[in-house]
Known about the structure:
Elements lengths: L6 E6 L14 E3 L10 E5 L2 E7 L5 E4 L12 E5 L20 E5 L3 E7 L4 E5 L6 E6 L4 E6 L4 H12 L12 E3 L7 H14 L5 E4 L20 H10 L3 E6 L3 E2 L5 H9 L13 E3 L2 E4 L6 H9 L2 H4 L5 E4 L10 H16 L6 H12 L4 H4 L3 E3 L5 E3 L7 H16 L6 E4 L11 E2 L9 H15 L8 E2 L8 H11 L5 E3 L15 H16 L1 H14 L4 E3 L7 H4 L5 E3 L3 E3 L9 E6 L4 E6 L8 E3 L2 E6 L5 E6 L2 E5 L13 E7 L3 E8 L13 E10 L2 E9 L9 E7 L5 E7 L1
Parallel strand pairs: 1-2, 12-13, 12-24, 13-14, 14-18, 18-21, 21-22, 23-24, 34-38
Antiparallel strand pairs: 1-11, 3-4, 4-10, 5-7, 6-9, 7-8, 8-11, 9-10, 15-17, 16-17, 19-20, 25-26, 26-27, 27-32, 28-31, 29-30, 29-32, 33-34, 35-36, 36-37, 38-39
The site of ligand MIG has 10 residues, from loops.
Amino acid sequence: xxxxxxxxxxxxxxxxxxxxxxxxxxxxxxxxxxxxxxxxxxxxxxxxxxxxxxxxxxxxxxxxxxxxxxxxxxxxxxxxxxxxxxxxxxxxxxxxxxxxxxxxxxxxxxxxxxxxxxxxxxxxxxxxxxxxxxxxxxxxxxxxxxxxxxxxxxxxxxxxxxxxxxxxxxxxxxxxxxxxxxxxxxxxxxxxxxxxxxxxxxxxxxxxxxxxxxxxxxxxxxxxxxxxxxxxxxxxxxxxxxxxxxxxxxxxxxxxxxxxxxxxxxxxxxxxxxxxxxxxxxxxxxxxxxxxxxxxxxxxxxxxxxxxxxxxxxxxxxxxxxxxxxxxxxxxxxxxxxxxxxxxxxxxxxxxxxxxxxxxxxxxxxxxxxxxxxxxxxxxxxxxxxxxxxxxxxxxxxxxxxxxxxxxxxxxxxxxxxxxxxxxxxxxxxxxxxxxxxxxxxxxxxxxxxxxxxxxxxxxxxxxxxxxxxxxxxxxxxxxxxxxxxxxxxxxxxxxxxxxxxxxxxxxxxxxxxxxxxxxxxxxxxxxxxxxxxxxxxxxxxxxxxxxxxxxxxxxxxxxxxxxxxxxxxxxxxxxxxxxxxxxxxxxxxxxxxxxxxxxxxxxxxxxxxxxxxxxxxxxxxxxxxxxxxxxxxxxxxxxxxxxxxxxxxxxxxxxxxxxxxxxxxxxxxxxxxxxxxxxxxxxxxxxxxxxxxxxxxxxxxxxxxxxxxxxxxxxxxxxxxx
Length: 723
Ligand code: MIG
């Protein structure tokens, strides 16, 4: 892969090889008195600070899975992967670390720090005009992307770290989950219910309760007497089953994973060389040492339990790694409680201290400093130094083995924890959000920031994970989710059920329409996704990546979904519409409800209040661009797509590059894909339509195209074309 002139690597010390990058750039070894562009460099207390004076107009983009605004100014972000189920605005860390940002304003440049432990970005929080990046280490790689173009910086970042992961096409279908479906019967019933209610669905997840005592790579035979049969039967109706996997291996004599891991020395060790103990779901566990390639191979082979059943999707959870407590942490707590009990007559502040200790017993920084990884060269490294790589390497174990088993077959693979580079082999969902309206906005912003990092295939738990949800919230979130690549309704233990039929008849009908609309959009979504990966352009883009000017920089709750469609979800309670900014060009407003019902109106650029009742989501097609739709189906690939509907607002000329392939293999890399170059030119009051197919491998089954082309005055011409 060729990188252009404007990416420079500044190597500081002897960095750990993280696996984030796929090219070795010639580095500029950084010496004490060297300078790097844009930043003032300061060495203090074994930390290196990079300081930049921001101008008023500077906007900071990126940083992937972080809370707060899309413009990252005004907040501190701390990269140290953590399992925090309370995504409240002040939080600085989540499950993944993505230290890549773009500053756009007076100057424009990009920066990526390849360092797998704590990094702090203070972006105008402590001092409103100062960007201060702190790395508490003298061994890391710093990349500066010196370009004025945000999209070229991103392209360069993808050249450096690799292209985004491509899931199978069915991964764009609707997915249902809950913690937990407790039995085989329950899973089968959920599947049946989707087909009975006519709501399309492609995937159902089984959360931790399918396991025997939370032991990874086991199945609870009482609750799931025939997991394999369930997988096969559901496949018959187009539903794929995806199991969850946790890294912690239960300490239990006779349990294969435990015995093998112990015998082979595959677990992380403590300072005395004993297998490190941390408690997670199964109680006391050992953590596999995923930073070692032999361990990764061992772990990867275990997925065979599922791949033998025909399972093609996996969900790697808890891999920050999440720690509920360690024996040491628990002992500290008991000591404190004992003191408390002895002095209970006078207990005051001690109660609060005990409470704090109890809360901090999970994911305690000290615990992360107290275990070690044996690397391939036999050396030991403290976990803290490579903390952010744990989930990446667990997921690498999965991906490598899936590729080994079936080199030409795509898989759906989600990880909760991540680091740059993971985006090449898998993707992430946004973790444990809540059934809060505020978290819809978080979802919309994070979707854009994650796409900048190459996590194109992502989304949040639709309806919210923690807390109970209302019908209205689930409906609005189902609308938003219909326009995110990963579309999964999921909720936590003991929360109100939120499958589409759990509310009332009217809500069910609305949700059916939404999911069907999603499926009608799959030809467009898939085509745009594949084109985005090919072109190295984010699939979801902020408006400010497409349009110029200050106004669009403030728009964070509307986004481009592919090149032609702008989505403006309603994310507030009790609203019957919302304000929408329409930049620069004319837009075709399709505030959509049902794929077949189109009440389209042409809008001039400007700001509008757009009406959108509960069953409607505001969608806008950009002037001189096109979208393609098909009839919805029960699941992706249920039927061949033989007819397409092409919709657009053409005031001049529009081209659409419709792409499709077999959806399950990598044969597209050998030219086995189909293309329709749809070219529409306005001629007087009419349109000239030209469609050029490229289809050497006979992928396309399209026989007929319905055109529905709007003129800037709102008039429409409909034509059919037979291929
Ligand atoms: O601590 O497996 O983010 O999606 O349902 C909770 C149970 C553990 C966290 C995941 C969530 C999943 C849950 N897990």
